[in-house]
Automatic annotation (TrEMBL):
InterPro entries (UniProt xref): ABC3_permease_C, MacB_PCD, Macrolide_Exporter_MacB
Protein family (similarity comment): Belongs to the ABC-4 integral membrane protein family.
Organism placement in taxonomy: Bacteria, Bacillati, Actinomycetota, Actinomycetes, Kitasatosporales
Keyword Metal-binding in record: no
Name by which UniProt lists this protein: Membrane protein
Coiled coil: none
TM spans (from-to): 270-296, 319-345, 365-387, 416-435, 447-476, 497-517, 730-755, 780-800, 820-843
Species of provenance: Streptomyces fructofermentans
Amino acid sequence: MTVFKTSMRNFFAHKGRMALSAVAVLLSVAFVCGTLVFTDTMNTTFDKLFATTSADVTVTPKAANNNEDPQNGKPESLPASVIDRAKQAEGVKSAEGAVSSMNVTVVDSDNDNMGSTTGAPTIAGNWTKNDLRSMEITSGHAPRGPTEVMVDSDTADKHHLKMGDELRTIAVTGDFKARIVGIATFKVTNPGAAVVYYDTATAQRELLGATGRFTQVNVTADAGVTHTQLKRNVSAELTGSGPALKVQTQKELSDENREGIGEFMNVIKYAMLGFAGIAFLVGIFLIINTFSMLVAQRTREIGLMRALGSSRKQVNRSVLFEALLLGVVGSVLGVAAGVGIAVGLMKLMSSAGMNLSTADLTVKAMTPVVGLVLGIVVTVLAAYLPARRAGKVSPMAALRDAGTPADGRAGWIRGIVGLVLTGAGAAALFTAAGAEKAADGSLMLGAGVVLSLIGFVIVGPLLAGGVVRAISAVLLRAFGPVGRLAERNALRNPRRTGATGAALMIGLALVACLSVVGSSMVASATEELDKSVGTDFIVQGNQRIVPQAQKAIESTPGMEHVTSYKLIEAELTSPDGRTEDSDVTAADPTYASDLRRETIAGELSAAYAKDSMSVGSDYAKKHGVKVGDTMTVAFKGGKTAKLKVAAVTDDDVAIDKGSRYMSIATMEQYVPADRIPPNDIMFATAEDGQEATAYAALKKALDPYPQYQVRDQTDYKQELKDQIGQLLNMVYGLLALAIIVAVLGVVNTLALSVVERTREIGLMRAIGLSRRQLRRMIRLESVVIALFGALLGLGLGMGWGATAQQLLALEGLKVLDIPWPTIIGVFIGSAFVGLFAALVPAFRAGRMNVLNAIATD
């Protein structure tokens, strides 16, 4: 009980200082809980959608894959006779055919794309009774003929569509127009897909290119018949002659659909949790510093407790109990804040086009448990070392000294361990940079990052002396005596300075590493484009290029040649008898000049001859393939071909690495016309001197097809730079959480340091130090600590980034580019971070009463 009372008294006596540490715990726990609530809510949204839209039992072609676009742009389908056979199964109440395709683009009369901007699909199909499970018609009526279409209300609201507006649907089978005659509203949350409905005959003709066929059959069970029983009965009825079919219950189809987004959801979840882990790591330094300084300030008090009979365990327990209180308060508030963060993320996603309703907000029981346990355990563990140090203080030593005595032997051991770990990390990074395989090098890179980071954290107090003096020599000498005082204050407690700088070091090391990697990727890709790409224009989009768009490209005036480029699925068997599934590239012979690929054997032009192909050098080395060998290629949906290897291309590239080339004419011999895929991408080269005119003409030709973009090499480079820049900005935004926690650490360190030096500050003020000079001294001390952490972090991060670039060089990204403007900007920004962190501590120090400060014991 005495320990409890003492801990409570000390906790509330230092509530202001504890608050900053509690904020660090709060932010970290909030980010964890917010991530869990956000991803759980998204899962709930999709689960409800899939469960509502799925029939009791669904029959689809066995070759169909819900998570992939069809190879030829037209969904796999089954004959209408399947519906009649399904109706005959026992326990079937009704069965109806449905048509659905996601390989479409819908535009309005101004050619604006009606699809989602978040990656959600545009879904076109026929209106069925099964759709009434998830939607209701709120305006107009369902489509009744080829010129009528119905849209979902979310798409109508987003694009300001109204009854009577004309929409054009672009499919691989052609374009067709229809006017809006109805608007349907989702009964559950629609995560962002655009949905359009046509009558059945129009959907079959325009989306499938055939009549009397459907993409699936929706079967409804009679009362009292379970989905499992219904599946068994329908499967038995459909067994026998006819196409290969897949029969699934509502749950099985929902689970399959969920798997399609599961990987994407996991990437979001674990990436955000990773950044939360970084924030926790930074918060550990803040908590350690807080309790270390609180213990040092209460040394006399602890000594008195020990003299009055308190045992080491009781002192230790008292400090840990304070940490427990801090962890509980910070974690409870963090859990609540996490729900707020999740709601904020949902609103942000909704504004970007992915609709997430707060009605689906999901807070699982484990979420607050995880947040509380994580926050409390981390806080208590972080406070363990200061608590242990407090327990070791002897009564007499505590009564004599103003602070805890330094353990010289522990400092040397710490330094040796830090140097050993740093050396091991450097060795691992060096090994990773020289790796011959990216997979092996990645493991060593990970080990090097972890070991060097831990090593720098441990050895930080040893580095503080030299680095702080170097920074001070450049920065503080101009401020005279005040600058020297700031330098001495930063050097007074190297362990504290090292821990405070380490908190900032972690976030900035990651910023520097990712900046180097991103900049190197852009520089490498730019060099590769300059060296390898010979074409003038590249046309591609988020869908394969439909034939009507291909025709528009090919008929554009001013072109020397236009190249088609298709990817087709196949099963390759090498001369050594090993078989693997792979994409094969079928292109026009002009592609050899559009993309200049070096060969290590044979001539690439020969690979475009009849019944010939090329392979990449990595594949050739793995399977012992050489020019003149014969490859067995079994085309999906087509025949099996025996093709001669006419060239082996060098895979030491970033573009088309590992591609196997053949001519479109060769592919057409073995793949039926209705199975040949549309172009994935097209290339165009202008006639000499006609580049500008041809560029404008090509853009105009594709105006009716907004889903495709025309880029010259300058556009392509800029887009690559923008994409990587956007990704890095997102990462920097997430890392900002760790940097905020680090700033709180600097604020807390300075605030506690001011209290620790109360008498000293009073004496300096008494002998003539002005308030302005005092505040400047504290601000300069903060700047030096911040720059110390920045210097270590940026140096460490550039080392990580340079090593990562060496691994990327194995994938063809060979240029190391250090983004000096970013690095210098971050370093300068760190000085402003230091200034900002010192505002409150400096202000409080300046307001300190001189006589009271001197009288402080």
